[in-house]
Amino acid sequence: MKNKAMLMSLLGALLALTSCRDLTLPPVFYTLEKEQPLEDDRAFPDIATVHRIVKVGGAGGRYFAAASKLYTRTDGPSENWTVVSPPVPGAMCNTLEVFGAFIYAGFFLSSSGDGIGLWSADPTILPIVWYQEPDPDVKGVEIVMIRTVGAGALLFVSTRSSNANALFYNNGLNFDPINWGATPPPTDIPITDVIIDTEASPSHWVIVGPYLYRNALAVLPGTFDRYSGTPSAIRTFGGLFETGGTVYVSSDNGQLFSTPDGGTSWAKTPSAILDDTDDPIPFASFTLPASDALAVYVGTRGNGYYRIPGGDVTGSSGTPVRSPAYNISALYNGAINCLLYDAGQSRLFLGTAGSGLWRGDHVSGSEWLWKQE
Amino acid sequence: MLPNKRRRTAALFAIVLLACPGLVFAQEEERPVPLSVYTLGQQTFVLNLGLFIPLFLQDFDGAVSDTNLSLGGAGSLQWGIHLDNHWLVGVEVGGIFSKSLQENILYMLPITVKGAYIFHAYPFEFPVFLGAGMDIVKYRDQSHIDFILKPGFSSLWKYNVSWGFGLNVVYWWVPQPWAEVPNEGRMGNFLEVSATAQYSF
Fold first, then answer.
1. How far is CA A331 from CA A11, A21, A244, A373, B24, in A?
2. Could you point out which of A112, A357, B68, B112 has its C-alpha 20 to 30 Å from the C-alpha of B119?
3. H/E/C letters for each residue in chain B?
4. Most B CBs within 10 Å: which of A28, A31, A323, as the mutation test of the B interface?
5. CATH T-level fold of B43-200
């Protein structure tokens, strides 16, 4: 009787182990055979949290990465990252963007956590010399987000001051607050992304937590109204992206949405994409790595990035695939804060939460050779 | 230069060492050589600890590739029951770990049924065996169960009737076909070289 119980326990354990087999992943020996070393130390901290990475200039240009400290290197094959001195001793950088010929960065004091506003610099002059933006809307406050939209015509800056969030835009002269419509967003929710769709149906889109706002005018100011169409989120939308007149929206509810006509009609994933524990994947920022033709990539907060074949969120061109390979665990299970595709170098950067900065050199199709910078 | 006294001591020690085999054989000649060491129903526990040596991977068309694994560690426990002086059947549970190029750890846990034929040359034994069973493979987010074949041999020195010590050399053949994408199927070829301790009762 005792022996029978032991045998049944053993069989049960084996059955449980067998069920662990994931048919969506390649087998172990094949994965080992294809494995490449990840080590390619470019002096970027391996456990850094990267908030944002941008590139200034084309070939021979310079990358900047906001990872509390601000790092920079050229796009050369063996360049190392160096730290850019902040405008104030001890200040940390949490976001940055390229606007015109300048880089714009948000800094905060590491000692108190207080924001010290928006700063700009000419990236071609080294060492970097910072200038504080004098506009009171962006001076001495926490900078939450900086985005250039409209082919570099507008700079959007979202701020937080005394737990009140606000969104401003700069057309090259000064910063103005945007106009909210009849239902303005709650002021305690950060404003995390903005894009402009200039092609199919010119309009601006903004993410404020679980709300989408749309300004149906291509030229500001206009009015940003709460959008009540198809896209939905649990706690927050993840990111916005526009390519060829199609606007993409990612959500923390495991779904991806796209509209080709400024929100008149929407496509979405047939059902929520779930993780190993059946929780919805919290999707985040997008990019379009042109080396992998027609595919759109979207980062997640803990499940690497997903490749959307043909940019078709409905899955009719192929199911979104979790990437990269599972043996690159820091990325496969990583929270991807930001993605940057450098077309000139066929290079994709992934900035992670706590696992540093990763560089993918394009091999072919959807295959990238990943190295930790 | 060593002092003369120390050199003499060293020379004497060397002579004693050289003479040891003779002394041992002289002693052994006094011990009776057993006609039969094992009988039906006698049991044996074996503990193996040693090295896991990745050899190569091979696809099902015959192409060979590197495993991209480092030298690893191996260990196993075996229980067996003797059928007569030469034949033994048993089960073995083992495990290995090995590091990949990306410094991930591969784990394999084979559970095999084993048959062995023991050659006797008292005080030595040379079991030649074949194990077959399943291999639980775990690597990062992937895990599966594969078939495993483990041919091998041991060289054991019988310290006394109960205890034996020696060396174990085992070949691991782990086919990993993959019906979903057949060209991703591979056969793993590995070697285990381990020290072994055997207790019979």
1. 34, 20, 28, 13, 62
2. B112
3. CCCHHHHHHHHHHHHHHHHHHHHHHHHHHHCCCCCCCCCCCCEEEEEEEEEEEEEEEEECCCCEECCCECCEEEEEEEEEEECCCCEEEEEEEEEEEEEECCCCEEEEEEEEEEEEEEEEECCEEEEEEEEEEEEEEEECCEEEEEEEEEEEEEEEEECCCCEEEEEEEEEEEEEECCCCCHHHCEEEEEEEEEEEEEEEC
4. A28
5. Porin (2.40.160)
How many CB atoms neighbour CB A54 within 10 A? 24
The 3-state DSSP composition of chain A as helix, strand, coil percent (nearest 5) reads 10, 45, 45
Contact B67 A33 (CB under 8 A): yes
pLDDT of residue A11: 60
- Extract the residue ranges of chain A whose pLDDT is less than 70: 1-3, 7-8, 10-21, 200
Of A22, A33, A329, the CB nearest to B68: A33
The two tokens of residue A239 are 């990111």
| Closest to A361 in 3D by CA, of A6, A42, A33 | A42
Alpha carbons A336 and A117: distance in angstroms, whole number? 25
* DSSP 8-state class, residue A224: B
- Residues facing residue B86 across a β-bridge: none
Closest to B174 measured CA to CA, from B94, B89, B90, B91: B94
Query: In this complex, do A29 and B188 lie within 8 Å of one another by their Cβ atoms?
Result: yes
Q: What pLDDT does residue A360 have?
A: 96
Please answer yes or no on whether A327 and B104 come within 8 Å at the CB atom.
yes
Rounded to a whole number of angstroms, the CA Rg of chain B reads 22
Q: Is A35 on the interface with B (CB under 8 A)?
A: yes
- A48-177 has which CATH code? 2.130.10.120
Report CB contact under 8 Å: B57, A31.
no
pLDDT of residue B44: 94
Instruction: Considering only the beta carbons, identify the residue of A17, A23, A328 that sits closest to B102.
Output: A328
CA A13 to mean position of chain CA atoms:
41
Contacts of residue A77, Cβ cutoff 8 Å, sequence gap at least 6: none
The answer to whether residues B153 and B124 touch, using CB atoms and an 8 Å cutoff, is no
Is the pLDDT at B11 greater than 50, yes or no?
A: no
Query: What is the tens place of the pLDDT at every residue in A248-296?
Result: 999 999 999 999 998 999 999 999 999 989 999 999 999 999 999 889 9
For residue A180, list its beta bridge partners. Answer: A224
C-beta atoms surrounding B1 within 10 Å: 5
User: A67 to chain B, minimum CA–CA distance in Å?
Assistant: 24
Listed by start position, the domains of chain A span 48-177
pLDDT value at residue B33: 59
